[in-house]
Design goal:
The structure holds two protein chains of two kinds. By secondary structure, chain A is α+β, with helices and mostly antiparallel strands. Chain A has four helices and two strands. Chain A has one domain: Arc Repressor Mutant, subunit A. Helices cover about 60% and strands about 10% of the residues of chain A. Chain A has a two-stranded antiparallel ribbon with strand order 1-2. Helix content of chain B is about 35%, strand content about 15%. Chain B has 15 helices and 15 strands. The longest helix of chain B is centred in the last third of the chain and has 17 residues. The N and C termini of chain B lie far apart (about 85 Å). Classes of the chains: A alpha+beta, B alpha+beta.
Chain lengths: ~80, ~400
Amino acid sequence: MDKEELKNKIYAFMEKYKGKKKLKEKDVCKGVAEETGVTQDEVKKALREMIDAGRLMYSYGGGASSVEIPSEEYLKEKGLA
Amino acid sequence: MPKKYETPLLDELEKGPYPSFVKEIKKAAAKNDMAADELGQLEKSYRTKRGYWKHGGIVGVLGYGGGVIGRYSSLPDEFPNVAHFHTVRINQPSGWFYTTAALREMCDIWDKYGSGLTNMHGSTGDMILLGTRTENLEAVFAEFSSRGWDLGGSGSAMRTPSCCVGPARCEWTNINTLDICYEMTQEFQDELHRPAYPYKFKIKVAGCAVDCVAAIARADCSIIGTWRGPILIDQDEVKNYAKKGMNIKAEIVDMCPGQCISYDGNELKIDNSECKRCMHCISKMTKALKPSGERGATILIGSKAPIVVGSLLSWVIVPFIKCEPPYDELKQLIRKMIEWWDDNAKPRERIGELIEAKGMRSFLEHIGVDPQAAQVKFPRKDPFIFFKDEDFEKVYKK
């Protein structure tokens, strides 16, 4: 699968769970790998590229870290909006 | 800057012979509004017996999932300068050795972007910089990283490994704690900055069982220096200790957890086969006793402070492992431990808790370490090794 396509799949996966469940990096890797048939390592690499570019972000709440779709405010703060 | 708040309750903490954090905050408050409001809010907390910090949220630098801990005041109108009061963790050098120039540089950056308040050091080991605003985070990070510093770990990640001063200053160390700590920090860079674990994971390296970094109480994985040879005894120095008034029976013999020391008033003897390598006798009779033979480390697993559920002390997993660069065996062992934990743990479950829930056997099988007597933590209470059919077959074949 093309990397951009994989990134779009990851984004769609994140949107599906937005506001419903806090997803750890591993949850995303597992879930997307199951959906798409690509390896978890490939998903992990694509996911991290998305985080580095600000398309996704790390968050922290309730004592645990998770991955989220960034808010407009966050993107503005990072100069990405 | 004139005094902004009256702080009669905090002033009480300046009295007495001990160093006072209040005194230091007041010094910072004289030139920094953030520190002044921090003082005001703290006084209010002491008055009302309530905390006014909100924790967590979405703060950090781009690409990193750790190193910044979000902190907000729940009274932003009353104390506007601490409306944002985020903590930044900076990865400390091994053994906490700095030049004064490095410390000045760090404090100058923090005066520019933050409250000027620091905590040297946090319980994980990082340098803790207290209080900055969200919009300053990228600038703070850029300033520090351009000078060779990096953020430490926070959240569900590998936490910044830490170690004792080791061979740099201590004659008792059995391993190069500084090098091991540095190597572990490099090995787990990705896991340190990108939180992907069920919860935190801490590595601490102590040169000997005196354990100056409290690895046995705080670290998920403790690496503690040890030795294999006998304890060497200088009987003349033993006599000197006795002459100077040491009660060798009470202070050394009776305190030995292995009960392997005897003293007839003239000569000290040690049954090394029963020695637990606890360092008590060596640290008390520095001139008379010293370890000898092969050096390495004992690996322990599972300690934690009492957050979520109760506290745990570490559990011996590998009684002796050679610790020489590039530490491949050690790195592989730690990766296997983490793999088992990551595959099985619930969110916010530390590895020690998982071992208690799932059993030591499953853990040992995954990491490929054979059960040994030295791993038994509570004899006759919780046996975790059971024989399988193939074990009996092996015996019958013999």
